[in-house]
Amino acid sequence: MSVSSYLTSHLAPFKKSLKIAHMNIQSVIAHLDELREIGCNAMFDIIALSETFLKPGINNDSLLVGDYAWVRNDRTGKGGGGVALLVSNRLKFKEIARSQAVYSKSPEFIFLDVECSNNHVVVGVIYRPPKIGKIHEVFGLVGNILANHGNLVLLGDFNSDMLSNSSYKKQMDSLIADHDLYLVPMNPTHCTPTSSTLIDLILVNNMNFITTHGQQAVPAISNHDLIFCALNLKLPKQHENLKVVRDKRKFDEKIFIKAASELDWDQIYMEPDLDKKIEIFTTLIVNLYNEHCPLHKIKPKHLPAPWISDDIRKMMATRDLAYKEYRKCKTPVNHNKYKKLRNQVKQVIRNAKTRHFKVLFRSKVSPRDLWNIVNGLGISTKDKSNVLSTLPIPIEELNEHFAGFAPAHDSSVVIRKYLSACTADDKEFSLSRVTEKQVREALVMVKSNSLGSDGISIQVLQILVDVITPVLCHIFNKSLECGIYPSHWKQAIVMPLKKVENPTRANEFRGINILCAPGKVFDKIVYMKLNHYVCERGLINDKQSAYKSHYSTETALIGVLDSVRSAMDRREVTVFVGVDFSRAFDLIRHDVLLAILTSLGLSEPMVRWFSSYLSGRNQRTRAPDGTLSSSKSVTIGTPQGSVLSGLIFSLFVDSLPGVFEHCSCMMYADDLQLYMSGKADEMGEVIRKVNADLARLDEWCSDHGMVMNALKSKAMFIGNSKLLAKINRSTLPQVLVGNNPLEIVREFKNLGIMMTETLNWEMQVSDIRKKVYRSLYQLRRMAIDFPQHVRAMLAQALLVPFFDYASTAYCDLNAEQIDKLQKTLNDVVRFVFRLRLDTHVTPYFVKLGWLKIRERKKLAIGTMLFKILKFHKPLYLYDQYKFLNDIHSVSTRNAGSTLSIPKHNTVLFSKSFTLQSISLHNENVHLFDLSKSVISFRNDYKKILLETYCI
């Protein structure tokens, strides 16, 4: 009988009781298949795990076990360790305590308050590493828990042999007695060839709770037995875990389109009321889709590893029986028999897994289906570490928080200021009639397939594009004519995501708004029109790098960092301030925004339409189990989830750079950076000027209803080490936001890259390598048996972007740092081709069409410069380049195509993006001159760089 079969049989009489188990698993990843076998078959409601060996970068999606939610406390700072609880999705729970994640030679633990039908119980998992003290501190916490909660169950590996007479055992006896706990009796739980000890324990505060208990060897996992108990606590009624999905088995797209063409769309044209037009449109689409692709409920199957067949399970049972015989009689013969069977099972499982993936990833699978398969296995380009499995606070409380509130604020002065700057002649922007061509273009551009409150997906609209385009065109134009935004498209569904690892308060969540798909299409059309208008007229400040073509976080970083490098070239120190705004998008006041839009030249009907677009919005928050909160009105902020949100936010804050008299600034959406440079002995005066500008910023925020967060805003001195050493920081004035001094830091994460005070990129390189190896570790575990072309696809999508993101901003890496990154990229290539460490990798780079780090850097710099010169954007970068014939009156051969090299004093600035890009351009003038597009330049230059590799 296998482990899971024995446990299922033993626990069958206790089906309605709370059943808890503990295993010292010694690596979840190494024993995931066996864990899934137990989790899917053994009827436990909670499985406590110690020595999980998990790290924060490993997402829960790749560790799915039956119908359980993961609660993890991964050890950081040292390998090994870690504890976790797998909790059945039928149970509601709340975390009440956990140990710190960073290794500190202390026990590791998690405590949960679990709700049952008739009571609550605190369930804790504890791992005490060998020869580690401080267990009394954990029991001190247990004492506090017992004072506030009635029932307690502790499970774990305490590394204290309760069958011995050691000092650890005596300490445990004393702590158990002092807290009036009971040790559930067990036989030895940890067996080796030379010892048998009782170190895996279950402690309770009431033995009457225990209706049964036991232990079972799990030799495929570790030398520790699985220990378990059932409690005299009734499980909550299990609601059938059903998922509503579309039955697409008989869906025929052509028949669906034909049926749609035969619907009575004329009734929409005849209906005078805009909202009723939307109601008719929604009803027609939803009813038709329900007819051709009906909704039905399914019960998601949480099967164990699909490659483990019944024959393999029989082999596993034989292996377990051999181990049982060995435990009874520890002879070399029995031990060798068990080892032989264990190794056979491992090899059979490995072979079965390889065959499974070969069938799954057959060569004819489309890229889209291939990614669906990969995502289904828990491997994704999307970070899902912030996705919730349960909601620890009431959904109404969370919805109230997300909806926000409009604090009392007198906007009359700033509104008059904007309106007074507007004349009748400024009324230039009035949206012309929407065309069917624009509707089609917008339909293609909208990518999100999330269902809004109307139940219509963008995918359905795209299928019916030929039928519905005229209808949507009519509805959109009616909205613009009336100056009214459809109320049905103002209803948002909010999906909560966690901002911290274990949120317990509403402000530790952020919401993602899901809007109706037809409304997204409409918003996209208005966005394109408005964006063209403001960009063509230069109405958005050049220092705002978000939501504009040819601007990005990378260009913003280049602009700031090359300015700082230029200051260092002049032997100056830069005072840098990263300003954080509290809930910036959520505090946009509608009356001020409408005044700004008026001042920018929007016609009165267009402003009236935007007023309707912003007002009358409602939202409901959806819990992970699908429960919806009541509807809550939203009266402030930009409509999150709409493509228009970012653009109108940019317009709202566009006047902000104009308030600064001394500092330079750079913005990316609500991310603001201020910086000013000066001589090291002038830092006091520089800071006073920075503070003066920060005071002006504070006044601007007060006028516009925005709030700076002094706790999250940081300041930093940037310069070479010699100049920084000359600064006596203790005598300098503080950098102030309002009356709050900012923390002066030596490193700062700026738009995703790690800046230090000397612009040494060691921390950035370390951060990249850490991210790559964390992801590579997960891929090696999950994808090493995938076909080579799938591993290459995963590496390109999941690993290579870490090397490429904003690489032109820190292009002044030293040789040692480049070498570190190259070694890391080599390991990625080895993963793709399953190469030995001593294999020469250059030929494999060529096979993949990948460049090495130095050549990647050249390609990134060249491509960025080509875009800057071609589009003349961003201006803050384009203005740094001058062609020789623009400077000299006498024309020389090739002068028109050659960039002038600015004067500079240091090697540091010679490695700046500006100078490296100029040198690269002047070495490849003909390539820059002859290339017609960014794609052709990139492809041609990449080909040239690849040809430099000698194979």
TrEMBL record:
GO molecular function: RNA-directed DNA polymerase activity
PANTHER family reported for this sequence: ENDO_EXONUCLEASE_PHOSPHATASE DOMAIN-CONTAINING PROTEIN, REVERSE TRANSCRIPTASE DOMAIN-CONTAINING PROTEIN
SUPFAM superfamilies, alphabetized: DNA/RNA polymerases, DNase I-like
Pfam families: Exo_endo_phos, RVT_1
UniProt name for this protein: RNA-directed DNA polymerase from mobile element jockey
Domain Reverse transcriptase, residue spans: 478-755
InterPro entries documented for this protein: DNA/RNA_pol_sf, Endo/exonu/phosph_ase_sf, Endo/exonuclease/phosphatase, RT_dom
Lineage: superkingdom: Eukaryota
Keywords: Nucleotidyltransferase, RNA-directed DNA polymerase, Transferase
